[in-house]
Amino acid sequence: MAGMKLYGSDSTHLLSFRHSVSTAPPRLASYPSRVRFDSAKLGRLRVLSMAAKRNPKRLKYSAPRFAKEDELVYVEVDPSGTDSWKLEPVVELLKQGAVGVIPTDTVYAIVCHLRSHSAIERLRRIKNIEPSKPLSILCRSLRDIDTYTTGFPCGDGRGHANIFRAVKHCLPGPYTFILTASKELPKQCVRYGTTTAKYAARKNVGVRMPDDAICQAILEKMDAPLISTSVKWPKENEWMIDPVVIADIYGPEGLDFVVDGGIRVADPSTVVDMTGSSPKIVRLGKVINEYSIENYVMVVGALNFTESAVYIHFDQTPPTWSRFSSAVFRYSVERPDGSNACRNNSCSVYCELDGKRLLKPCQFDTIVLRNLTANHYHNFLLNVTTLNGENNSSAYSWFIDTIPPTANVSSEQNYTSAEKITIDITFSEACNGHGGFKCVNSSNCDVIVDGPAHVQPSSLRIIKPNIKYSLKLVLSLKNTYGRVVVRMAENFCKDRAGNNFTRSNASTAVIHFDRRPVLVDLWSSVPSYELAINGVPRTVFATNRTENLEVYLDFSIPIINSTEQILNALDVNSGSLMPVHDRTHGNRRFVFNLKNIASETEIITVKLHAGLLSGRTGTPISPVASLQFLYDCTKPGVGLSSNSPNVTKVSNINVIVEFTKPVFGFEASMIEVNGGSLIRFKELSRALYSLTVMAVTNNVVSISIPEGKVNDISGNMNVASNKIEMIHYSTPAISMHYTRL
């Protein structure tokens, strides 16, 4: 920030048009929604400028035009004023005597119609303002200022400057000028003039011409200026900069409307008292922006002539924005009649640079400054005293800027399947020299495209003059997928200091387009088995696990959906899915644990509603078949049966083995036989087997299948079978002899 001091022959006046310069591209950050400032003092005032966090209650007032909330009309308007048609209800309310809040080029203001006595009373009551406290008026034009005040000093040809001619270069802008009220200003406004030491008289009034698109749109539709006071927290010395918070705090106090123009910066206007013999700073606040620094010099120069018997004229100065670390000043000292006040080097001269007096004597006519600090404001003060004791000072401020301008190229669609996307180009500062930024046609455009795409010059849109632009990029339909690199050209423009444009890493954007279908594989950790069912090969999924039972979704490209959104797109007929959040593999794989299956045996079906999901290119997910598997934690039972009697003389005993469900890997060696031997084993199906046991002794023959010998498809081991016992005997030899006889 830089200040500019003005010195007259009789008194000293300080006029500081502050300007904040960043040496790097601005970065977004979150700050508190309230900003504290110190009480105004003559001198340099540091006001902390912050952006506020988006209040959750903003959703409450997100209606596209305007909506009533507890009788409060809340209108949300783009800060650029492009949708100012939404302000029609606000204008009508003001004309009917409403009190509400509108944005200005500094902070938000509570306003009402200048000619509505009841509205002014209500405004003071809402904000709890004492009658002695000042109110300002918001004017549409200089004509309004001339109508309701006696105007600015216009000079008298005797060394008093034409202040009006200088000040009008700063309007509209973030200034409040204290002027004498005219008879046109209604009495109810005049009687509320201040009696504090800051302001000159009861019949003075502060006038503003805000440089804000929304505020100007409202004023243009009004038939008179608006009474205005800035919005602060009721019990704290802090600006309120979030319109949502303002609506919540002041709405119940009786506001009729709030115009939401976005969160503002906590920087009040600069207040200048113009009612005395010379301008006087009452409060230092926001000043003219960096693009109007030339106007700043004009105002200072004009005010500097006030009440001076001699004045200093700078014949040569460095440009207000310079890239050089040296500066040359040539000057002359004249009287009001144009004569040389320092003939024959008869004056005493001393100089200050940035508030410090130069050690070396200042040369008359020409002063050269070297090795100045780069990227910094500098203020040069020249003080001259004639032999007759006539004294005056003149100051000049300029900025040395050695940082080259650059630009950030970005898009909200770095991955897309569309034919056209929007490219945003944001410059770090205005870059108008050397022709500035242009895009006339595809061959004469400062945006270079590498890849199967081209810019559409006719789509060039100026979002913020000299700073932000948007442009359509047309992606080739001949290519199903590909990559496009968009970058800025080199050295196509210069900033106001003469620095050439330089590309940075952010000056290049890479766009990926892919119009291929987005595929998804829905699978699980359940093992699979190849079976022949009715002679047809089938793949069967089955498990008996209750731990680490996982369901997977693998996408061919990353998707834009969150884990919660995917979970909502999944249906399962039994149990519940729990996301495993740390295994998304760049939004291409999502894993869920299946828990809480109620039944011991269930065919689990998992279905994905693919239409609810999209790939990062915006392409919908292709449908996928449901996932099905058998969940079974019951053990297979097994039963043995035989048509042989319990006591038999037949040596070969036939046995049927029947399982309650199909099993795998059942073999003859798994059968326990006592008193005989297994001579035949045959598989009739996975669940049915036959075998023959030959008795080898005249004794008991037993057959059984122990527990845990074979498993079903889910991995459950069998329970023990029943035991078959038979008594085998053979016919005695004597019996055989009698039979033969």
What does this structure look like?
With about 750 residues, this protein is mainly beta. The protein has five domains: about 210 residues, DHBP synthase, CATH 3.90.870; about 110 residues, Immunoglobulins (Immunoglobulin-like), CATH 2.60.40; about 110 residues, Immunoglobulin-like (Sandwich); about 110 residues, Immunoglobulin-like (Sandwich), CATH 2.60.40; about 90 residues, Immunoglobulin-like. Helices cover about 10% and strands about 35% of the residues. Strands 4-5-13-6-7-11-8-10-9-14-15 form an eleven-stranded mixed beta sheet, with helices on both faces. A hairpin with a 5-residue loop joins strand 22 and strand 23. The longest helix has 12 residues. It starts with a strand and ends with a helix. The N terminus is likely disordered. InterPro entries: Big_12, DHBP_synth_RibB-like_a/b_dom, Sua5-like_dom, SUA5_domain. It holds the Pfam family Sua5_yciO_yrdC. This is Threonylcarbamoyl-AMP synthase. GO terms for molecular function: double-stranded RNA binding.
Secondary-structure topology with pairs:
Blueprint: E1 4-7, E2 12-15, E3 34-36, E4 66-69, E5 72-76, H1 88-95, E6 100-102, E7 109-113, H2 117-127, E8 136-138, H3 142-148, H4 163-167, E9 173-180, H5 187-190, E10 204-209, H6 213-221, E11 226-230, E12 238-240, H7 243-250, E13 257-260, E14 270-273, E15 280-283, H8 293-304, E16 311-316, E17 321-322, E18 327-334, E19 348-353, E20 356-357, E21 366-369, E22 376-385, E23 391-400, E24 407-410, E25 415-416, E26 420-427, E27 439-441, E28 444-445, E29 447-450, E30 453-464, E31 468-475, E32 481-488, E33 508-514, E34 520-524, E35 528-533, E36 536-543, E37 550-555, H9 563-568, E38 570-572, E39 576-580, E40 589-595, E41 601-608, E42 627-632, E43 638-641, E44 647-648, E45 652-659, E46 663-664, E47 672-674, E48 676-685, E49 688-695, E50 700-704, E51 711-712, E52 724-728, H10 733-740
Parallel strand pairs: 5-13, 6-13, 8-10, 9-14, 17-23, 25-33, 36-42, 44-52
Antiparallel strand pairs: 1-2, 3-12, 4-5, 6-7, 7-11, 8-11, 9-10, 14-15, 16-18, 18-21, 19-20, 19-22, 22-23, 24-26, 26-31, 27-28, 29-32, 30-31, 32-33, 34-37, 35-36, 37-40, 38-41, 39-40, 41-42, 43-45, 45-49, 46-51, 47-50, 48-49, 50-52
